[in-house]
Amino acid sequence: MRQRTIPIPWATGYGLARTLLALGTLGTLAFSDAATLFREVATVGQYPLCRGVTAGGAFCLVEPDHYDTMRWLCCLVLVIAASGWRPRFTAIPHAYVAFSVFTGISIPDGGDQITWVLTLLIAIVALGDSRRWHWQPSPPGLPRSEGRGLLALLGISAIVVARIQMAVLYFQSCVAKLPHAEWADGTALYYWVNNYDFGSPGWLRPMVNAVVHNPVGVAAMTWGPLVIEIALAAALLMPQKVRWILLPAGVLLHLSIAVVMGLWSFAFAMWAGLLLLLAPLGHDPDLGRILRAVSRRTPGPEPVHDVPIDEPVKEHAHA
């Protein structure tokens, strides 16, 4: 009987995505006090609203005087999740914190929503992850048990759903801009970088204005993101070598948005989504070997040789 195989989902690639998601939410909670996060919104009410499903959020479980205490408890959960310790046990608390932030704070952005969706899907993956740290290499094979195989299939399915979610997100982001004249004629970024709320910071404004006041520069800044977004939307239809090329392009796109507009939690969420979208299923880079390679390239003090200097030195490859 012909057997079908699937990649093992419990790898360092998905672990890095977990860490990025946790760091994005951690930044929001650690650098914003309760008075900033929970405010009254006109025509809506005082946040957290604690209505329906949102009443299950962490900040609805305490009185307003204890919001800061709950905020720091959530930060502790996020630090543990970001560290990669015991993903099977920390993934669901991490998803709960992401849900509590998205539904609880008064002005969530798109990054908070993306983080909640991706952490929920990643929690499904982590249910079968028995590693102590998500930085450890994936196991070489699965035990011959139906339960373990089912968990692997469930995990891979969750990652596939996350990939489809990211592709649809980039497609919608690109297509939704096209009917607007400013995006069509290449001037939209001129207005965005000079916006009072989301414009570039003062130290960066002279450099950015020098670009957006040039017709070619503002057109490149406006149309460039559209090209990257539509390419990312179609990434699942492209060979893997093209996806690796798109990864740094996507990372730089969201880094630019974070630096210019200050949307750092959004950037971390999208970087995590990019890893899930563009890396192969079950991608398991040997981070230890990468770090060792970087350290070998870093110049250091000249070694003291106990053997003749012209004698070849043998290096052993580490698995």
TrEMBL record:
Protein source organism: Streptomyces fuscus
* Membrane topology label: Multi-pass membrane protein
Start and end residues of each stretch annotated as Disordered? 298-319
Q: What is its main location?
A: membrane
Domain of life of the native organism: Bacteria
Q: Which InterPro entries match?
A: HTTM-like, Sporulation_SdpB, Sporulation_signal_mat
Xref: NCBIfam families = export_SdpB
Q: Where is the HTTM-like domain?
A: 9-282
The organism's lineage is: Bacteria, Bacillati, Actinomycetota, Actinomycetes, Kitasatosporales
- TM region positions: 150-171, 216-239, 251-279
Q: Which SMART domains match?
A: HTTM
Task: Report the locations given in the UniProt record.
Answer: Endomembrane system
User: Which stretches does UniProt call biased (Basic and acidic residues)?
Assistant: 303-319
Per UniProt, which keywords does this protein have? Membrane, Transmembrane, Transmembrane helix
The protein in question is named: HTTM-like domain-containing protein
